Every structure is written in C-alpha cells, then in structure tokens.
Amino acid sequence: MIPNPIMSQNEYAYPDRDERLTSRLIQNYNETRWNLEEAYVLKKVKDTVLGENEKLSVSLDVGTGLGRLIPFLLSISRKVIALDADLWRLEEAMKAFNSNSSVFFLWTRSSRLDPIPPGSVDFINYSHVAQHVSPHEFLETLGEFQRVLKMNGWVLFLTTHSEGKEWFLVSSEDGAEEIGKEEYEKLTLNPVPGKLPVRKFNVDSLEKLLKECGFEIEWKFYYHVKPEFAPRVELRNTTGAIGDPTELLESSQKDVEHIMKNLKSINSNEMEARRKALDIAMLLRKG
Predict the structure, then answer these.
(1) 141 CB-side CA count, 13 A
(2) Is this prediction's pTM over 0.70?
(3) Which one, of 253, 239, 266, lies nearest residue 31 by Cα?
(4) Percent of the chain having pLDDT more than 70?
(5) 20-286 sits in which CATH class?
(6) For the chain, which terminus, N or C, has the lower number of CB atoms within 10 Å?
(7) What's the mean pLDDT when you consider all of the chain?
(8) Helices H, strands E: what count in the chain?
(9) Residue whose C-alpha is closest to residue 73's, from 132, 238, 90, 83
C-alpha cells in the first residue's frame, strides 16, 4: 500500500505550465480514453519487467514533472529517485509525496546524472522528455542511462513519433508550426514562455540510434490512437486510479475491453499503427 498523500490521475492536469496545446489535444481526444491507453502500456511494462518476481530495487524517473507516474514506479520498485530540471514542478511533486520515505527527489539542470552511482538502477522511466531537449542532450542522456543502469536494466521510453521524416515543431496556444533544427535547438537551450519545442522522431532512425547506443528493443507499442480512428465508446463510472494507474484497467466495463482490443489490433500492423497513433512506447534493455 502506498502511503498518503499520493497524487491521483484526477489531481494531475495538463498543462503543467505552458503545454496548452497538449492540454487541448487531450481534452478533445477524451481524457478517460487517453489515460486508459497509457495504463495499458504501463501494464505491459509491469508484466514484462516483473513477471512473477518481487519488486525491483531502484527506479529512476527522469523528468518527473508533477510526479504523475511515481505511483506506478512504486508499484514495481522499492525505491524511486525522481528528478527534473524544472524546480517548480519538482517542488509540487515533493508536496504530493513528502510522507513517502521510498521516494527521493533530485534537482538537476543538465542531462548528467552524476550523483547516481554506476550500475545502481534497475529501471528508468523516460516519459515524453526526449522530444523537448536538444539532440546533443538526448545523446548525452542515453549515455548516462547506460552508466547508471545495472546489466540487463530496463528503460521505458515514451515519445512522439512521425510516420515519415523527422519533424521539429514549436507549439503554442495558437497551434504548432514547423521549424528548423537550429531554431529547435535554440528553443530547448533558451526556453521562451508559451512556446514549447517538440521533436517528432522518425521511428526507423530512432531505433537505429538506440541500438547504436547499446540498447536492445524488447518491444514497441503505438498508443494514443487519433480520435478519428478510435472506437466511439462512452465510458461511464470510470474514475482516475488512486496510486498505480494500471488499476484503471481493472474495470470490467465492455467499453474498456473494446479500447484494449482496438489497440492490439492496430499494433499488429506497424505501418497502420504509425499512421493512427500519436505516441510510441519502447521498452529498452541494456545490452
């Protein structure tokens, strides 16, 4: 049982600060279905990483934000180290988990993880951070993951993707526009209020890069299916999970089962899944 206070799905709201475009996207999409699809990905992670074993020793939450996924990490590991470059977000997460002796917080302004010893971490959660940092910082981060992970340690890598070429975008309340790589790098190093740099990775080149950096891809899964492709279902009496978000999947509602079947269906055909989904999840293993 996770000690209180903890943060529920309902208490976490996009945007954290400037991500108004993301907030609008989720609201238009259907927030319940959005949460269910992410919960399904997390359940796949738990089944793969734990199996019948006990909890892992240490998990690392890189870019924890408001600590939205800390309850999930506590469900698979005995200790969680949560870090972020945004001090405001980190302080808010600390307020939510300040009575939990299993959660430790770290403020870092770079991609380096110097305070963390080599080979000390079992699992790393890297959720939707890579798309907002410079290409140089992303590469340095992957190197740090290799350093701190135990042999055969895991990384959950969640990010945006593109069906075709790699895109660099800047999003704002007015929408998103394509920008060049140099402008994208400048925005990541010198943030502008109300503007969020977003990198949409080309999946093939991303996989090649991850393998070159020493990671094996255990599985990949496309999720957050675009509204025009998602099943039109109306969910009733499905509330945000308190603690582990995978509890959302424990509902016996047929609508939940419908969504899960649809996700399995599109992922059986990778090209179709790329076209229909907004995000990609990869479970990486240190080789």
Answers:
(1) 27
(2) yes
(3) 239
(4) 86
(5) alpha beta
(6) N
(7) 85
(8) 9, 10
(9) 83
